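Researcher: Please translate sequence to structure tokens.
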Amino acid sequence: MRSVRGSSRMRAVLVHQFGGVEQMKVEDGVAIPSVGDKQVLIKVHVSGINPVDTYIREGAFFILPDLPFVPGLDAAGIVEAVGKGVTHFKPGDRVFSSYSTQFGTLAEFTSVDEAHVFPLDDKLTYSQGAGIGVPYFTAYRALFQKAHAKKGERVLVHGASGAVGLAAVQIGVANGLRVVGTAGTPEGLDLVKQMGAEAVFNHRDKKYISELQKGEKFDVILEMLANVNLGKDLTLMKPRGRTIVVGSRGTVSIDPRNIMGIEGSVTGMALQTATPEEWKELSEGVIEGINAGWVTPVVDREYTLEEAGKAHHDIINSKGAKGNLVVKLQD
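Model: Translation complete:
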């Protein structure tokens, strides 16, 4: 293992067996990960928390790490060291990373493939940087690589006040889409409206689907909780509308006749299946948004490393999402 400032050990959250949040233990003396030729060692200031992290921890995801493992896919921090084949980064650079960590991000250091490390603009905090990766890449992939959304099309973001939802609203508005969002609390509704949505609906209101059905229907629907909403979504699409399933926590019954006559489609998506070429497109689109100023992650709450288990609990059991949850490892 590479020695970092005189030490080869660090603090990290480890999971020794799949299960609930009680499996997440903060441990001292964890070996700092090694750095391959094309890898970057990041001193993690903030780790992002995403629903997918909880599915992996539970052992309920289709790709699982070997045990024991450090959870976390997103990070923001400072480059500590680079492999001899790295060409775009040097020690001291501010960066964020996403989804290619050989080693999780709930740790003081993480090692990431260079292709999944990106410059963090000075106008964004480390907490905001940790909220870019999975949320913005997922939203961009759903809108443009899967739904092939075009300027002027009407988009429904179902669950728009969460991290992915807010990213989708920002990306959609910036690219000329007509965005409508749903949320479950007054605070969430206000936040979605602030991001530029032309209309917002409370999905806890039993009448909201009928209200949506009365108005203009949608070219694209992004669905964050398909096990609850997918059947309803199929009644809201225009001819040749596209529903993209971003998240689901169970099974659902649907009536296929609702998409037959309109030749609608339902497409699942998973960020980790993106090809290297698609990752390049994703990163270029999001970096363009950072430079233009419309990528502005909303940080709802910051946790300590000891509170990482609570962050995992809260992101699934929240009564109303309002952006990103992150874990701070450095001041």
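Researcher: Any highlights?
Model: The longest helix spans residues 276-292.
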